Amino acid sequence: MSTYKTKNPLGSAAVKDLYDNAENLDKFVNDRTKEESDDRLGVLRKTWYGMEMIFNRFIAYITGRGEQAVGAIGWQELGDWAIGLTVDNRQQIVYYNGSWYKYLGDLEHVIAGDSPANDGGIWSKDNPAGKWSNIGDAALRSSLGSSEGTKLIVAPGNGGTLHDWINGQLRSLFYYLSPAKIASVIGGTATDITAELQTAMNDNRPVWLPAGQYYVTASIAAAANSSITGPGPRLASIDNRSSSHLFIIGAGGYLRGCKLWKGFSITASGDNTADSYAFYYSDRQDANGAPVYTIGQIFSEIEINSYGKLGGGWYLQECFRVVISNCGATGLSQPFRLVGSVVQTTIDNFVQNGDGAAAMTGRAYTYGLTTEIKTYGNGSVFTPEGLTVVNTRFVKQDIGVRVSGGLFLVFDAVEADYSKYKGFWYDGGSQVSFDNCYVGVQSYRDADFVGFDIPARAAGVAESVNVRGCTVNMSVNTHESASSYKSLGVRVGDSSVGQKGALIDGCTFRGDGYDAGIYVYRGASVSINNNRFQYSGVNISVAECINLVMIGNSGNGAGKYLLNSSSPVATWTLLNNTESFESVTNINPGGLVAKNAGYSSATLRRIERVSSPVSVTVASGTVYQHAAPATIPLAASVEVGGAIPAGLLFSAAPASTSLIRATFFNPTGAAITLSTTIYFDITHPN
């Protein structure tokens, strides 16, 4: 503020002007209370302090607006509609009655009405002056368009998100396909995915197989952590048009944890895969020739439709913890082949129909499952161990199951239906059990048929082979040379070596056309117990068996037993068997114990003991007779015992069918007191 305000022009040297100039300069520089002051010409000027305040306010303003701008990328949700709520940028939206609204008027705006309609109105083509615009799902669309959008989309199948598919937990095969191939798949056209599927496997992660028809022209090598999950075998299929296996597993290396293969079908339309497998585990040995394992593969809901064009299902070697469940196949020559060190394998609820199948090159038969010995580079020999097969059905295979080595192998509720040559064949191993299994037979058979074949494979060793609770349903052979072929429910031993350790217990033999239900060709130690024979004819036939236990077998009243042994040390126990002993030849009669409704041996005795108290003095040279009641045949023999004093001579014999008489004689020169409880052992005749 100037004192004199002469308003003389610039450059004036008047003393008053110089005074005003000095005064104004002082206030301009040093005043800390006023932001403005007028000069000597009467013009209002910003003081230095005023310019500082303008600068500070500007910095505060741009800082705040910058923060708002950063927060307003996309939509900035202010929340529910409320009077007094302030809208100060265009990205801010307010929620009212199920929709989001954006303010179109001048900012900033403080909401004064109780609704958009009452706070400036809602914009529309009929109300272009409205201040609020209903943006609907624009917020969601903005979020989907952001880098986080894939996390908001739930994927079909396992409930993961699209982000999971793309970034690691599960990746769709469509990630690898070109738009043209995706369109081909969606359009229902079989599409070549050979290169893309191999790339997906190489990424070492699970792959989602969308519904569609696919084919490959070369084998696909699976990485250690790769696998395929599809929407189901009716919706997704892979056709093997290569000349080898479809998937090769194991080359990816050792990795613990479970890898899931699930929900697709496999076909083979080419003509070069009859000796190949759908899943082939590669031979894996370290530098020293020891097995190296592939671990933890799970196969579920996979259907293989081969019709004779694809040879096998699973070829397993150097692996453990493989689980195959709820799968099926048609036309495979061999669904399962387990070779060498295959540990802890489970097969559950698998069904194979062998229509159209033929034996693979180098193999004489079609099989449902085989186990096999393998010799490794370091000289060690391994066989499958810890195999459990349950609720599984092999239909129309030449041989249902062949065990050629293995330890702890359990087959429970497994069917070998419409088998041609054998149902279950034990050909070596240890602790092998066939429990509750079923064998059905093809009617037209050009060779012998055996439901359960148990030869000796370790001479002198008690081989643990159990056939328990199983059923054989035989049929009459309709082959033109049927009279040349045998039909047996169970065969024990097939050579000069006697099978030792076989147990056939609780089985049922039904149908017609048997030469024998159970046939022991050569046995060293065999137990045949509690079996049921529901047909007429030979139930049990023994050509040779050194030790035989045959207890509790029953038939329909028209069954026969043919039992023979030429061994001088043969020992047989035959008890409570219901059918006719048509022929029994055992040259060691002392080794035969038999008690059956129609047949008993001369060596069988029943011993009964009765007791009686006595208190008497037997004078020198006299005889005392003591009677005891008992039910006894007159032909029985009696032995007497107890605390009988030395010097007395005694014997006992039946006095009648209800009385035993014991005689005591004192040959000494002094009286002897007999005061004790004596017993009588009665041996009844047959």
TrEMBL record:
<protein>
    <recommendedName>
        <fullName>Tail spike TSP1/Gp66 N-terminal domain-containing protein</fullName>
    </recommendedName>
</protein>
<dbReference type="InterPro" id="IPR012334">
    <property type="entry name" value="Pectin_lyas_fold"/>
</dbReference>
<dbReference type="InterPro" id="IPR011050">
    <property type="entry name" value="Pectin_lyase_fold/virulence"/>
</dbReference>
